[in-house]
Amino acid sequence: MNRVSGREWLEPVALAIILIFTILFYVEAVSRDGLVVGIDAPYYMIQVRNILRTGLMKYGDPPLVFYILTVFTILFGGIETGFVIGVSVLAAISALPFYHLMKEFSKSRIPAFTTLLLILYYPSYIRMLGDFVKNQFGIVFMGLALLYLFKRDMGWRRYPYIIVFTILAGLTHILDFGLTLLVLGSYLLHDLLTDRSEYKWLLMAVGAPSLFYIAGYYLQPFYFGDLGKGVSFVSDVVEAGGDTIFPMGPNIYLPAYASALVAGALFIALTRRRKILESRLIFILFILQIFLITPWRPEWLFRIMLMSFIPISLITGYLIKHIEKVLPQLLIATLIISYPLSTSIPLSMRLHPTITPVQYNDLNRIRDIIHGQAAEIIFIGHPGEKYWIEYILDKPILKPGTKPSDPTTPIYLILPTGMKPPPIAKPIYRGEEYNLYRLPTR
């Protein structure tokens, strides 16, 4: 007994080491050449800057992540630093509920650590850094809802927590909200097909957050406007049509398909052996993975299949728990974890900002030229550069052909070098990557 107690410190220490190392790894992956990777990174920083100035976001979106990143910015004294550290910390801790879920099911550390490491270093999870921050952090609430579903010793008292976690998922990202509802719905379906002991509470757990989100959509569309994306998704599914393509390599979709087959076989075996609780978990993971691997239309497929790492990681941890001896468990877990590690490290090196240091320097010079003017900007170029231009120049970006807010407001045009300006544009600055022109005002 004393020997076991003496080793209890190993688990929190190992967990702390993994999280600290992972945060450092993510920080290195997210920051490149003094910039931040991802097409949406400057968008997040624009939102944080506006919150610091006005208390409100500039663009409508589920608000939770932006306000959390604002706290990191205040703590670390800079928007870019706060973003990099905030994203890295949020991505690391988002996997913890799945670790605790697998530990509760397996009563063993090795399956739990396997699940944790698979999530943290799965290629699609690394891919989400910088670009899909809300989506990535939202899985923490999905994981907490799933974890509390299986805290059956709490009885009905766990359902208020589940409802709160589901609402928080909705305040983070519409996809996480939808997947959390899918998890709850799968649990409800299994309950109706077996012991019918919790279906009333489960209906409330599905209904209350759904009504909250619908009410928010009509009362505060600025924060809940993403419901329109959900409606658009359903509309696209109903209409169907179009060829489906796979914008990812086989290293993403083959493990996802394999895990769905394994989950289906496990569910049948567990149901025959009347292991209701374990079969319920596997049933949820099976339904979730079937949804994630369904060949939706191309515009939806990439974002949805990125989330397939969740069932993959939990199913793998569940399989590891059935290896009886510790040493074979450890060896097989190490072999499995080495696969995403060997892929994710090179992948992290390929993540880059959507502008180059040369473009960044040009934009800083342009900022110095127009500093202090109530100017508005028209940019014609690659869409991935737009948010960087808005963030660095700190000026409104107008769509070409849009009228300025005030006819007397100076209008500047930014073009990539080599693009011919209109005859009415007056050259102001010629850089290595961008040229600045002034357009006549009325």
CA distance, first residue to last residue:
85 Å
Strand ordering within the main sheet: 4-3-5-7-6
> Which regions are unreliable across 5 or more consecutive residues at pLDDT < 50?
240-247
Helical segment count: 21
**Mean pLDDT across every amino acid position:** 89
| Assembly category | single chain
User: How many separate domains make up the residues?
Assistant: 2
Helix content: 55-70%
Give an overview of the whole structure.
The chain is of the alpha/beta class and 442 residues long. It folds into two domains: 2-350, no CATH class; 357-439, no CATH class. It is built from 21 helices and seven strands. It has helices spanning 2-6, 10-30, 41-54, 64-76, 79-93, 96-106, 109-121, 123-127, 133-149, 159-170, 174-193, 199-219, 221-224, 227-239, 250-272, 276-293, 298-305, 309-320, 326-350, 357-370, 386-393, and strands at 31-32, 35-36, 376-379, 397-398, 411-416, 426-430, 434-439. The chain has a five-stranded mixed beta sheet. The protein has a two-stranded antiparallel ribbon with strand order 1-2. α4 (64-76) packs across α5 and α9 (133-149) runs parallel beside α11 (174-193). The protein is elongated, with a radius of gyration of 24 Å. The N and C termini lie far apart (85 Å). The model is unreliable at 240-247 (pLDDT under 50).
